[in-house]
Amino acid sequence: MAWDFSTEPEFQQQLDWMREFVREEIWPLETIVDDLSQEQLDRLYAPLQEEVKGRGLWAAHLPPELGGQGFGQVKLGLIHEILGSSALAPNAFGNAAPDSGNSEILAMAGTPEQKERWLHPLLAGDLKSAFSMTEPEVAGSDPTTLRTRAVRDGDEWVITGHKWFSTNGSIADFLIVMVVTDPDARPHQRASMIIVPADTPGVRIVRDIGTMEHPAQGSFGKLGNHAEIYYEDVRVPTANVLGEEGAGFLIAQQRLGPGRIHHCMRWLGVSRRAFDMLCERSLYREARGGPLADKQTVQNWIADSAAEMQAARLMTLHAAWVMDTQGASAARQEISLIKFFGAKVMHDAVDRALQAHGALGYSTDLPLEAMYRYARAARFYDGPDEVHRESVARQILRGRQAPPDGVPTEHIPTRREDARRRFADILEAVTAND
Ligand SMILES: Cc1cc2nc3c(=O)[nH]c(=O)nc-3n(C[C@H](O)[C@H](O)[C@H](O)COP(=O)(O)OP(=O)(O)OC[C@H]3O[C@@H](n4cnc5c(N)ncnc54)[C@H](O)[C@@H]3O)c2cc1C
């Protein structure tokens, strides 16, 4: 029976190198990133990206023929756990969202010409991209309600609509835009993904939105910002459709599965960093005659976080393993489970660490307050908790039936009657012997 939790020694060496590299080379950038322009940031990243390429760890999410490593989801999960410790790390490894997901879409659904023009430069780090789906007017959690329209005019699509939260939209060279191409088709066949170069006339980026993660959104056009965009009669060639016309949801689904596993593993990286701070704090902070480590509540936080992180890690790796061995659709339930469970585990791990640090945790002198703001969004992007719970419950209930007579299967009086009938001989013999 194959049941193995070990990591191959060569791969473990790569993971060890990554852990050290992220801690020594990336964590220091966090303290100055807000003072840097995008150009300065690009300059700082360039040598780090070269080093990662030299180690053979660049764009590890892609198959070898596209310059990736073909690692599969379990190994990728372990990589993302390390990268998750810093929001700045994925960009040094060529797998920052949304470029990583977009490169997967292009690899999966792109024509040879689309790959040549968009995918290869994206992978080389020469282009940046955005994924433009969510609209302020309709529920992002139900994308069948999308309104942005693309109408065919000869050999062009004409796109009109309003999007927001397109991450990296203001620095992107091209956007993958989810648009309705056939409003009369069945709900999940109405939309298509279309590549829109950012400099196409009619692409109007109105702002980068201030968020809980970046409340003081002073700097337009910076990595990690979320753009609000109007598409006003934007004309692109019909050849810019990705995959089949009407396949937008199908492609989105294939992109989101692995993406959610990577998110969950990155969240464990955040949780671990917060957890380490919680443990450190408990050892040096004295209150009421002893260190916090001696207080039962703090001990409970440490034990609960350790247990929950372990559970989330195993669930995430299991989902990755199902995906590697049986494919994305077989892993649907596992992915939904870890999406809402992992988001809560991260939230609670950060919250406890912040609480244990008191005013210091709340201050910007520690990264905990930023982690807390980051953690909050995880409960609704890529599918709100409620939708994933609903989906899990539906899948679980699909294989079950109500009892035909309305009596619960476990109803003890009914079962007792059945048991009495079944064992009547013995019961009668016992009674006769009495
Ligand atoms: C940091 C960040 C980055 C993002 N990046 C991108 C990006 O690059 N590209 C992009 O297109 N979008 C992006 N988004 C947007 C994100 O995908 C949406 O916020 C998400 O899909 C939810 O859509 P919504 O905001 O319209 O919320 P809504 O769909 O309006 O949902 C609001 C709330 O309604 C409730 N709800 C919804 N459905 C149900 C249900 N079935 N049962 C019970 N309650 C329900 C939930 O509480 C949910 O949180 C990003 C968002 C964030 C925060």
Gross geometry: globular
**Ligand types:** flavin-adenine dinucleotide
Question: How much is the average pLDDT?
Answer: 94
The total count of helices amounts to 13
Query: What low-confidence regions span 5 or more consecutive residues with pLDDT below 50?
Result: none
| H and E order | HHHHHHEEEEEEEEHEEHHHHHH
Strand content: 5-15%
Care to describe what's here?
A hairpin with a 2-residue loop joins strand 2 (149-153) and strand 3 (156-167). The longest helix has 37 residues, at 248-284. The chain has 13 helices and ten strands. The protein has helices at residues 9-30, 38-54, 73-83, 89-92, 99-109, 112-124, 248-284, 296-326, 332-362, 368-377, 385-398, 412-422, 424-433, and strands spanning 129-132, 149-153, 156-167, 174-180, 191-197, 203-208, 226-237, 241-242, 286-287, 290-291. The termini are far apart. With 434 residues, it is an alpha+beta fold. Bound molecules: flavin-adenine dinucleotide (FAD). Flavin-adenine dinucleotide binds at residues 98, 131-134, 139-141, 165-167, 226, 377, 380-381, 384, 386-387, 390.
Short description:
The chain contains 13 helices and 10 strands.
Topology:
Blueprint: H1 9-30, H2 38-54, H3 73-83, H4 89-92, H5 99-109, H6 112-124, E1 129-132, E2 149-153, E3 156-167, E4 174-180, E5 191-197, E6 203-208, E7 226-237, E8 241-242, H7 248-284, E9 286-287, E10 290-291, H8 296-326, H9 332-362, H10 368-377, H11 385-398, H12 412-422, H13 424-433
Helix pairs in contact: 1-3, 3-7, 3-8, 5-6, 5-7, 7-8, 7-9, 8-9, 9-10, 9-11
The structure holds flavin-adenine dinucleotide (FAD).
Flavin-adenine dinucleotide is lined by residues 98, 131-134, 139-141, 165-167, 226, 377, 380-381, 384, 386-387, 390.
